[in-house]
# Entry
Amino acid sequence: MKLVPIPADKYEDYRLTLMFECYKWDPQFLDNNTVAKYALVLTQEEHEKIKELTEKLDKETRAAEEFLNQHLELTKPLSLPRKMKKEIALMKDYDPEKDRMLAMETEKKNYMLLTEKSLHPETIDWKQAGFFGRCDTDITVPLLRAIGGIEPMRIIATRPNYGAIADFPAHAAMEYSMDIFNDKITPVKNLYIPKPFRGLIASLSEHQTLLAEAIAKHDPKLFVYALEAYPQNQFSPERKEFFLKMFDIHCDIDPKMHEARHFYE
# Structure
């Protein structure tokens, strides 16, 4: 078992692999990189040993829980926390295998009930709905309430500017705050971009506007213009290698738009 440094010339590819293939998005916190520059390398023997120890630890933990369930008098000399003693006392007759079988049977019954009730939701008694119930945390709930005219919802989304943000063209795609209510979308009033950020926001707006046009017109050349307008790595020679890798990773995009790859070869 040892730490092996990742070669400096391979590190950026490694980070991109983590982001787009291993779903470790946003590998930075402020200016600090959270992706280590070292890899932990294990031999096959070490991997098998860790696996074995992990499984043994699970079995030992279960055995200790079962033993304490049958010998509650040991909780005091072991100086277990009061909260743990209380939980153990509640589990005196706990049978893990019986509990597992019961959980599987309950899950099966609930699945069958859910399938049946989903076909006829009007038959659900919401006062005695069991595992059915309201979920107000889902994003669709306030969105549907807003569209239904019950209460407005403020969102941040990308739309044509239409004068919402001062000193930007009406057709420019911009990301800004707006309120949804009934059949209306109303921009928040008095939006503006502070001067130090105007250049960056203008570049992002140009990128989004060209991207929308490229998709609408199904035009790979406009897609290239949109990629070139993105402010990161703009005008740098490394951008070609970066975009080629992105096209390779996202090879399942629309074949016509994937033709944009040829502009970087």
Observations:
- The first strand starts at residue 2 and ends at 5.
- The longest helix spans residues 44-70.
